[in-house]
Amino acid sequence: MSSGLTGSEILNMPNSFLDVDSSTLSTSKPNYQVTNMFVYPVKSCRAFEVCEWPISDSGMLFDREWMIVTEAGVVLTQKRETRLCHIRPHIDLHANALLLNCMGMEALELALDSASVAASAEADLCIGKVCGDRVRGLDCGQLANDWVSEALCRPGCRLIRQQMSSIRICKKDLASETSSLSLANEAQYLLLARASIRELESKIALKTDSVLLTSDEVIGRFRGNIVVDSEIPFEEERWKHLVIGNVDFRSLGPCTRCQMVSVDQHSGDRRKEPLATLRSMRTGKMVFGIYLANSTRSDHKVIRVGDKVFLSQDA
Fold first, then answer.
1. Rounded-to-integer distance, Cα 87 and Cα 262, Å
2. Alpha carbon 272 to chain centroid distance?
3. By the 8 A CB rule, do 284 and 237 touch?
4. I need a labelling partner for 124 at 20 to 30 A (CA). Which of 33, 169, 247, 311 fits?
5. What span, in angstroms and rounded, lies between the C-alpha atoms of 147 and 102?
């Protein structure tokens, strides 16, 4: 959920917010670094790739802060509506705006300022469910609703923004009873490691009847927030604590996967890969990537592509 700062205030944060606590790193080893970062402003829509980004106490700033619901109030995801991948969100912190793009349509621009949203929508509230949690949100207005309905060829849809007072608690974060969550399903962040991505790619390539997937396509299918380089496939599943740049994280364990990873993020078509290969590689639950949570208060901190990843010795 947003920090309450405007885009320009976020961009002009003092350097003191970026200082690294060296005591945190005293027992750590800088083995890896961040290679990619992604924000998903609208739940289940296309990823927005960034080079640096502020984080908040509920995850990456503005990540999954909006959702699209049906006329009946059901939250849409790509499990139900694959055309969500055609909607390409972009956040312009300089202009303090969320931009939505879709092929053949004029872009939709919405203010990031929550007060402006509430005023324009006349505080029209919507109550929906995300992973069993009842969430309250503000309707972004008829113009936005018409736009998402046209983009999805689905009349009656509404674009809803999570209400700041509608706080969700991360059920996976057993170490904290106050870990807040946006409209994400399970946790504040999802991390992917490149050694695991390469391993999955290589297994798919061995199948004569499968269409090859590039690393970028695999990353797109698994919808991570943070991608790091690594050496050993699936070693990230053993990590416990890590520091990225100047931000402390703890692992909440592996992410269990479903059929949504088989949706081509450009066409919206359903494919058998990479889910079929992942199923053959793993015993028990099909997991890929790990969930992360903030270990300390993280408002006003920034993470960047190229940041070192420090693993604590108990990782």
1. 18
2. 23
3. no
4. 169
5. 10
**Regarding beta strands 52-56 and 158-162, do their DSSP bridges make them parallel or antiparallel, or are they unpaired?**
unpaired
Q: Which residue has the higher pLDDT, 181 or 288?
A: 288
Kindly report the three-state secondary structure assignment for every residue of 238-293: HCCEEEECCEEEEEEEEEECCHHHHECCCCCCECCCCHHHHHHHCCCCCEEEEEEE
Say if CB 101 and CB 88 are below 8 A apart: yes
Categorize the per-residue pLDDT at 16 as very low, low, confident or very high, splitting at 50, 70 and 90.
very low
Helix (H, G, I), strand (E, B) or coil at 193: strand
Nearest to 69 by CA among 139, 166, 151, 117: 139
φ and ψ of 233, to 5 deg: -55, 130
Do 147 and 156 form a contact (C-beta atoms < 8 A)?
A: no
| Token pair of 32 as six digits | 């890896």
Place of tokens 């108990």: 314
**Type of residue numbered 20:** V
What is this structure's pTM?
0.86
Q: Residue 305, CB half-sphere, CA atoms under 13 Å: how many?
A: 11
How far is Cα 76 from Cα 129, in angstroms, rounded to an integer?
10
Q: How confident is the model at residue 27 (pLDDT cuts 50, 70, 90)?
A: very low
Sequence-separated (6 or more) residues with CB below 8 Å from residue 115:
none
Rounded Cα distance, 297 and 40, in Å: 22
* Cβ-Cβ contacts under 8 Å for 101 (sequence gap 6 or more): 87, 88, 89, 90, 107
Is 17's pLDDT higher than 60?
A: no
The C-alpha angle with vertex 136 and arms to 72 and 129, in degrees rounded to 5, equals 50
Q: What is the pLDDT of residues 144-190, one digit of tens each?
A: 999 999 999 999 999 999 877 656 666 666 556 556 888 887 899 99
Residue 276 backbone dihedrals phi, psi, to 5 degrees: -60, -45
